[in-house]
């Protein structure tokens, strides 16, 4: 059997870990930073944070096109360098307006580098281990998500210094860029250049319903990840539970990826997706239906288990609907869909919380997730079977 854990694959995973570690180092604390430093309101926080996701969304289609049309290593290096440099902008932003501009623009290179890095990971995997390898690749995201928020909250609790966190994020991102710079791509499928620029070069039209379905799940995690800390503090009276929540969520993600590897290797993509969505729905429902420590922490584990099964299954399903020269586009499409959902979740979550409270915002998450699950079983699963490329 072809070797899965080759040197280049490990390097790409390590660089991805650094990328998401830098990202998650700031994510759970930015709402508190905006509130305490600039006095931003709930809906203003939602507006500021959604700008990042919106820019990532706008850049993803073009990054998929570029990664399929130009040397992937070069595109990856440029995107990763831009992502790292933007962390210095947070240190220089002294007003809410400047911070909003920097945060919004930072989403662009983040959107591009996540597409580029994951596509390079696919390139360095042996074709016989690709489904499994894509599933394990996500472990690097999950480990970063497990460690970074807890580490960030620990540092902030001791120092109450957001500037230190911005410096740490910058340094870690630079280290990730250095690791990626040593990756060797032996071959890249030649891009089939169309006679004219078409939508399918930027968005995998063949997988449109799969993308729409992913929007629903992105919405739910957008609300959860961005308003968890404030909800815990203001509604449940928990000041130190956010880091533990993210850690438990990540443990669930890691366990599900490890357990689901065999099913992915066997090509049981729809099985993993179905299992993951149902578990996630139970987790989101438990979070808001049981507003205490038991519900809070158990939901983290269930949401992690669910997303850990669902995400690699959906990603592999999307890639299975693409030709070999469309891998970047397929990757960007599934990430675009997640970004659209995340962005809508951040904006809607802030607006709903401002008008009706955080409890209503999280009940909205349950309803949206249930609609996403229903759509999958009624339409998307059949859509995948009829559209995949053999």
Question: Which runs of at least 5 residues are low in confidence (pLDDT < 50)?
Answer: none
Query: How many separate helices?
Result: 13
Q: State the assembly state of the protein chains.
A: single chain
Return Rg in Å: 20 Å
Globally, the shape reads globular
Helix content: over 70%
How far apart are the termini? 22 Å
Order of helices and strands: HHHHHHHHHHHHH
Mean pLDDT across every amino acid position: 85
What can be said about the biggest beta sheet? Answer: none
Q: Report the strand count.
A: 0
- Relative strand content: under 5%
- Overall structural class, as computed from helix and strand content, comes to mainly alpha
What is the gist of this entry?
This protein has helices at residues 7-26, 30-38, 42-69, 72-92, 96-123, 130-159, 162-180, 208-234, 242-265, 269-289, 293-320, 327-356, 358-387. It is mainly alpha-helical and 390 residues long.
Quick tags:
globular, mainly alpha, 390 residues
Question: What would you say this structure looks like, in words?
Answer:
It is a single chain. This protein has 390 residues and is mostly helical. Helix content is 81%, strand content 0%. It has 13 helices and no strands. Helix 4 runs antiparallel to helix 5 (96-123) and helix 11 (293-320) runs antiparallel to helix 12. The model has no long low-confidence stretch (mean pLDDT 85).
